[in-house]
Design a protein that fits this description.
Elements: H1 2-18, E1 25-26, E2 29-30, H2 31-37, H3 42-55, E3 59-66, E4 72-79, E5 84-89, E6 99-103, E7 109-112, E8 127-128, E9 140-150, E10 153-160, H4 168-171, E11 174-175, H5 183-189, H6 203-213, E12 218-222, H7 227-230, E13 237-238, H8 254-261
Parallel strand pairs: 5-12
Antiparallel strand pairs: 1-2, 3-4, 5-6, 6-7, 8-13, 9-10, 9-12, 10-11
Length: 270
C-alpha cells in the first residue's frame, strides 16, 4: 500500500512538471500573459518558461564553492524548481523597481529594487562581465543554491548557467541584503548604492528570496540589448548608448563600507 501511494505521488509530481508552463491559467487567462501585463518583460520571461518546460524537476550540475573547505571550487547537483522565478531587468536604472518576483503556478507578482555592481555603472548598469575583480554584474540565467551566513547576513548562493555568468560561484556573486538598497538611500542620492557585482536587495526581500529561491529557484539577469550576446560569451558586454551619472561613491555603498573596515579587497567577496 505504501509503495502504491509513493508511486502515485511520484507520478503526479512528474506529471505536473511535464505539463507545459504556458498552459497554466487563472480565471481562463494564461499566467504568462498576466505577468507581462503587470510589467514583466516578455522576452526574458519566455526564456525562463522555455527553461522550465525543459528542466523543471530535473537535476542540473553547476559550479559551486565549498565554503567549509577554504572556498575550494567543486560541482553539485541542483534540482530545478517549477514555481518561483525572478527577472532582473538591467535595462532599467536602479531607482526603478526592476526586479520582478513571480510564482508561475499562483500568478503572484511583485516588483522590487535591486542594486548592480560598481564596475557596471552608476545609476544605470551599462557594463557586464564574468571576470574576477571586475566588480561588475553578470547577465544570464542563475539557479539559487544554498543559504549561508556571510558578511551581509543570510545570503543566497547563485550558480550561473550561461557563458556570461558561469563563474558566479567562483567570483562570490551571491544575492544578499544591503542597507544601500532602501527608500532612504534612494531619496538621499537619487539612485541605489552599488555592490561589488552581487544583485543586492533590501533586508526584507532577502528573507523571502532565501525562503523561495534556495535550492533551485530560477533568476534571470537581463538586458534587452545584450541578452543574445550573454548567451554566447563571457567577455565584456557593454551598452554604449547610455549617458550615466557621475561616478561618486556615497557613504554606505559597498565601496565605502569596505574601505571603512580597512579590509584588503577580495575579488567579489561578499
Amino acid at each position: 500500500m505504501k509503495k502504491l501511494v509513493f508511486l502515485t505521488t511520484l507520478f503526479m509530481t512528474l506529471q505536473s512538471f511535464a505539463a507545459n508552463f504556458y498552459d497554466l491559467k487563472i480565471e481562463g487567462e494564461p499566467i504568462f500573459n498576466r505577468f507581462v501585463k503587470q510589467g514583466a518583460p516578455a522576452i526574458p520571461l519566455k526564456r525562463i518558461y522555455d527553461y522550465l518546460n525543459a528542466n523543471a524537476g530535473k537535476a542540473t550540475k553547476v559550479a559551486a564553492k565549498d565554503r567549509s573547505n577554504k572556498a575550494v571550487m567543486s560541482t553539485k547537483d541542483i534540482t530545478v524548481k517549477g514555481d518561483w522565478i525572478a527577472i532582473i531587468d538591467f535595462t532599467k536604472p536602479s531607482d526603478v523597481r526592476r526586479l520582478y518576483v513571480m510564482n508561475v503556478k499562483t500568478g503572484q507578482f511583485t516588483a522590487h529594487h535591486v542594486a548592480h555592481g560598481k564596475g557596471s555603472g552608476v545609476r544605470f548598469a551599462t557594463k557586464f562581465s564574468n571576470i574576477n575583480n571586475s566588480k561588475m554584474s553578470s547577465l544570464g540565467l542563475y539557479l539559487g543554491g544554498s543559504v549561508y551566513s556571510g558578511g551581509h547576513g543570510a545570503s543566497l548562493n547563485l550558480h550561473g548557467l550561461d557563458p556570461s555568468n558561469n563563474k558566479a560561484a567562483e567570483r562570490d556573486v551571491v544575492m544578499h541584503a544591503a542597507n544601500y538598497v532602501s527608500d532612504k538611500f534612494l531619496k538621499q542620492t537619487g539612485r541605489l548604492g552599488r555592490s561589488w557585482g552581487c544583485p543586492a536587495v533590501s533586508t526584507a526581500l532577502m528573507k523571502r528570496m532565501n525562503a523561495d529561491f534556495s535550492n533551485g529557484g530560477v533568476i534571470y539577469a537581463y538586458h534587452k540589448d545584450l541578452a543574445e550576446q550573454a548567451m554566447q560569451t563571457g567577455k565584456l558586454l557593454e551598452d554604449k548608448t547610455i549617458n550615466d551619472d557621475a561616478d561618486i561613491d556615497y557613504d554606505g555603498e559597498e565601496e565605502t563600507v569596505r574601505k571603512s573596515t580597512r579590509k584588503a579587497p577580495v575579488a567579489g567577496k561578499k
